[in-house]
Amino acid sequence: MATTRVPVCRIAATSLAALILGLVFGGGVAHAQNAAAETLFSEGEKLFKEGRMAEACEAFAASNRLEARAGTLLNLGTCREKLGQLASAWSAFKDAEVRAKDPKKKKTATERIRAIEPRLSFLTISVPDESRIDGLVVSRDGVEVDAALWNRAVPVDGGRYVVAGRAPGHEEWSTTVEVDNEVDKVSIEVPRFKELIKLAPPPPTPDTPPSGPEPPTIDEPEPGAPAGMFTPRRKLALGVGAVALVALAGGAVFGSQANGFESDADALCPDESVPCPDGDRANDLIDRGKSRALMANVAFGVGTGAAIGAAVLWFTGRPPADAGVAITPYLGETTGVDVQVRF
User: Fold this and answer.
1) How many domains does the chain have?
2) Cα(86)–Cα(198) distance, rounded to whole angstroms?
3) Closest CA to 147 of 121, 120, 165
């Protein structure tokens, strides 16, 4: 069997090359990251000297996110303290104290912590047991507050805060609190949220219409059932017929009055060839009789038209079940057909 030997010196050279490449490229990433953090740190120092504290704090905070260092945190804490953000400054100094390896930096951080702590303001979000609903979420300025921080005094910067809460099936709640910059203690209690009104679900809509015959309507009787005699058109015919009766009755009354006036005039002046001393009165009676006769004619005309209209409405408004013409042939002593009209 043939055995292949690789010189030991070649293996060592290959491993050494890989190690060098790893150090070069790995060290390049770390160096680039440190350079970016250092650039932001230098910018923060420049802005701090110019008195642009808010921008300086942003630069220090960005540098610390890239590479957390005790020196950066000390500068960030000092910057926050200058802006009156004591809780943020205290937190930065606490982080610097933990990270500092230089005794001088650690001492500086400890001194600043002791100086700021008596000046801190605190906010307590109290959540009583009766307010703790399943799924309850409490937030401060839109950021969820961990349940471990409920009922605890937490250092906060001075300012205005919106405390809110929500839970499934309940109305949302929120309130606004003001906290002073120094030596202030504010507590806010989260109430028990009101439950939302639960509406009953609508009944399910059937996919198919219910079986069985539909109930009959008034105007459309059920097939096979006797139809009503008084259809809507026949009811109208009755109304028109009533008008016809009133008009005909009025015509009769006016006609009777006209005849009475004419009879009274004839009684006053029976002979037209003989001068009548009551001629004026007789003429007045004749005029009144003519007026009553005209009114009688009009009333009779209206009554006759209404009667005809009522008859037409009655015949044309017959129920479908009753209407029709039946023709029945018959045989016997004579042959013919029997015609029956139903209406």
Assistant:
1) 3
2) 47
3) 165
Q: Is residue 223 part of a domain?
A: no
Q: What is the pTM of this model?
A: 0.48
- Rounded Cα distance between 164 and 142, Å, is 8
pLDDT of 226 strictly over 50? no
What pLDDT, on a 0 to 100 scale, did the predictor assign at position 124?
Answer: 96
Domain C-terminal end among 189, 219, 245:
189
* Shared-domain flag, residues 237 and 300: yes
* Pairing state between β 143-144 and 137-140: antiparallel
Q: pLDDT tens across 202-213, in order?
A: 777 766 565 656
Nearest to 138 by CA among 94, 179, 193, 81: 193
Contact predicate 152/138, CB 8 Å: no
Query: Is 79 within the bounds of a domain?
Result: yes
The per-residue pLDDT for 128 is: 93
Residue 216 in any domain: the answer is no
Domain with 263, as residue range(s), is 232-337
Q: Tell me which of 129, 163, 189 is where a domain ends.
A: 189
CA distance 328 to 337: 5
- Residue written as token pair 């015949």: 315
Closest-CA residue to 83 (of 61, 111, 109, 68): 61
Angle, CA 58 vertex, CA 34 and CA 63 arms, to 5°: 10
Which is it for the CA torsion 57, 60, 63, 65, positive or negative? negative
Q: Is residue 1 part of a domain?
A: no
Q: Look at strands 121-126 and 153-156 and give their pairing.
A: antiparallel
Q: Are residues 150 and 242 in the same domain?
A: no
Beta-carbon contacts of residue 293 (< 8 Å; ≥ 6 apart): 254, 255, 258
- pLDDT tens-place string over residues 6-38: 443 343 434 433 433 343 334 444 444 588 989
At 185, give phi and psi (nearest 5°): -130, 115
Residue 150 CB neighbour total at 10 angstroms: 18
